[in-house]
Write a structure and sequence with these properties.
Length: 252
Amino acid sequence: MARDSNFNKEYFDKWIDFVQTRNIDHDQKQVATLTNDEGKAMCGNDLFKNSVQLSIMCYSRGDAIPNIRKSVSQMVRMLELKHSIMASVQLEKDVRQMYERLDLGTLYESLTLLAFMVSLHFPAQDILHVLALIDHAGEDTLLDKIAHIFGETTRKVGQQSKFPKIYNTLVEIIAAPPLQQGALLKKYVEGWYKRMKPIYWYGNHEGGEGAYFGYWCFEAALIAMLFKIDDSELANHPNYPADLVHYYRNPI
C-alpha cells in the first residue's frame, strides 16, 4: 500500500522503473560520451535531481525504510558524480553559477538526502562527506547547524536561511524551549505545502504523467531526528514522513 495519498502503488511502480532505467542508468552512460561541457554539467545536475526523486518515489510507494538504502546510496553516488563533473568542465562564470548556486530545489534535495541518511543511520563520516559536497557554507544556517552536529565545527554559520520565508521557522524551532518544539513543528508542517509554492515541483500532482513523486516535508523530519523533537502529533499528517523518524528511533 502506498504511503502517498495522491497516487497508488501501480503509478509509482511504473515511474520508479522509468526514472531508474531512462533517467539514471541511460544518462549515466551517456554523460561519458558528451563533448560539450555545459551538456555535461546539465546532465550531472539532472542525474542527482532524478536520483533524489527516485528515492522519494520509493518512499511514496510504501517501501520499507531499509529497502530504500540502495536508492539513498545511489543519491550519494550521483552527488559525487555531479561534483566531479563540475570540477572537470570549463564554463563561463554565469553558466557555472547557474549550476552551482543554492536554489530552493537544490536545498530541498540536499535536506532530503540528509534526512534519508540520518534515518538509515549512515556513518557520520559519510554524512560529513555529503555535507562537504553540498558545501554552500555560511549561505544557509540550517545546513550549517546540521554540519556542526556532525562535527564540522569550523564551518561558518549563516545568520539565516537562504530562503527565510520557508526555512527560518525551522531554525527558530531548533532554538525554542524543548516543551514548545513539538507544537511549533506541527504548525510548520501544516503550512509547509503552501509555503513551498516557489519550488519547481509544486502542483505536480495536476501535471503531466510521471511528473509527481510525492509531497514530503523531509526537512521537518530531519530536525525532529537530529534535535530529538516530539513529532507524535504529526504521525498521520499526509506531508510528514513519520516512518523515517520512527525507523531512526526504532531501527529493526
